[in-house]
Model the fold of this input.
Amino acid sequence: MDAQAIIDSLSPLVPGAVFEAAPSVDFTTVYVSGEHLVATCQALRDSLNFETLVEVTAADYLPRAPRYEVVYHLLSVSKRLRLRLKVRVANDGTLATVQGVYPGAGWLEREVWDMFGIVFDGHNDLRRLLMPEDWEGHPQRKDYPVQIQKAAQTYAPLEVSQEQFRANLERDRVKRTH
Amino acid sequence: MSEIRTETMTVNMGPQHPSTHGVLRLVMELDGEVVQSVIPTIGYLHTGIEKTAEQKKWQQVIPLVERMDYLAAQSNSLSYALSVEKLLGLEMPQRVKDIRVLIAELQRIASHLIWIGTHGLEIGAVSMLFYAVRERELLLNINELIAGFRFFPSYIRIGGLREDLPRGFHAQVTEFLDRFPAKIDEFEGLLTKNDVYRRRTEGVGVISKEHAYAWGLVGPIARAGGSDYDVRKYFPYSGYETYDFKVPPPPKATSTRATVSVWPRCARASSSRARRSAASVPPAPGRATTRASCRRRRTRSTARWKRSSSTS
Done:
C-alpha cells in the first residue's frame, strides 16, 4: 500500500485533515498535521487494522522551522504493513497524546518528552523516563552540549514521617489511576 | 467474628538488587504475593548512546550500538549496519547475508540462554543458570574465534563484515549445533516438569493477543498470547525470506509458562536456521591468499584512516 492509497482511504475518515506523502527509503511515510493526529490514529487502528504502535521518536532539525518532527511507527500484523506517521512540531510546541488509541504510547511519549522536551497534552504521567527527575534540559536537542560539567547531586537524608509517606503513596495512586 | 483489616504493602526494590540484572528500581504495591501495581525506573542504564553516536563517524558507531544489549551484541550491530546500508542503497552479497544470519541466530540463542537461566534462577530453579551458561560459553568461544573478543566482536560492519570467517569456524559451529538440540530437551524437562516452577508460573501474568498488540509487545510474549508475528517472517531482511522455518504455533495455556514453552521451539528453529546458513557458508577456499589480501587492504585502509584523522 503506497502513501497515496493510505491518504485516499484516510481522507474520508478524518474530515478536514491534510495529509502529505513523504519521501522514504523503506516503508510508507505520511505527514499529518498535529491537530488531526489522534483522529488519524483512531481511523488507522479501527478502519485500516493498524493495531500496534511500535515506536514514537523525534528528530530535531535545528535551524529549520518548524523545528521538530515527531515520528510514529505503526504496524498492522493482520495486513503485514508498516506505516510511518510524521508530525511537524514547532519549538516549544505541544502535541496531543495518542495514549487513548494506543495505551503503549505512554512510555514512548515520556521518552520523547525527556529527550526533546516536546510536551504531550493529556498524557497521564508525563515524567522523565531515562534522565534523573531533576535533570535540566533535554539532551537530544541539537543545541544541547555533548559534554557538560555538572556537579554531583547530593541530598540531605530523606526524612519523611509516616503520615507524609502515606500521603505520597495516595497521591501516586491517584496519579496512576487517572 | 470481625473481618481482618488488610492493606497492601509498598516495597521498594533496587536500584541495586541481585535479581534486577543491571540497575532497575521498582516500587511495588503488594497484596500478599500478588503485585497490584509497580512503578519502574529504568533510567539507570541510560548512557546517551544516541547523543554520542551523533558525534561519531558512521563506522565508529558499531562498538557503541553493540553495548546497547550486551547479551546479543551482534544483533544490534546487524540492525545498525542494515539501516545504514538501506540509506546507502547497498545490496549485500549472498555470502555476507548468510554469515550475518548465522551470527544473528547464534547470538539469539546466547541471549535467550541467559534469559532462561536467570529466569529459572529467580524463580527457584537455580541450577538452570549453570546449565544455560555452560552452553553460552561455547557461543562466546565462537565469538572469540571470529573476532578475538567474546562480548563485543564488532565483526559486522557497514557494507559487509570485518573479514572472512576464520579457519576452524565451520567445525566449531557444527559441533555446537550437533550438541545443542539435546540440551534444549534437557532445559525443557528441567523447567516444565518441575512442579514448583509450574505452580509459580501457571496462570501468572496472562497477556491476551489484543493486549499484546495494544501495548506494543512482540516476540515470545506476544506469541504466548496467540500472535504469530515474527519480523523475520513478516518483513524479512538479510535473506530470511529464503529460509524455511515456522513461527512456533501459540500454546494452549496463556501465562508466563506459555512464554517459556514457546522458547524451546524458538530455539530449535533458531538452531535449524543457523544450521542452514552454516551449510551455505562453506569454509572459504584459499585462506592464505584471502588473508594476505585482507592484510594488504587493511594496511591501506589504516593509512587512509591516519590521513583522514590527521586532517580532521
Observations:
- The radius of gyration of chain A is 19 Å.
- Residues 45 and 90 of chain A are 26 Å apart (CA to CA).
- Strands of chain A lie at 19-21, 29-32, 52-60, 68-76, 81-89, 94-96, 119-121.
- The mean pLDDT of chain A is 87.
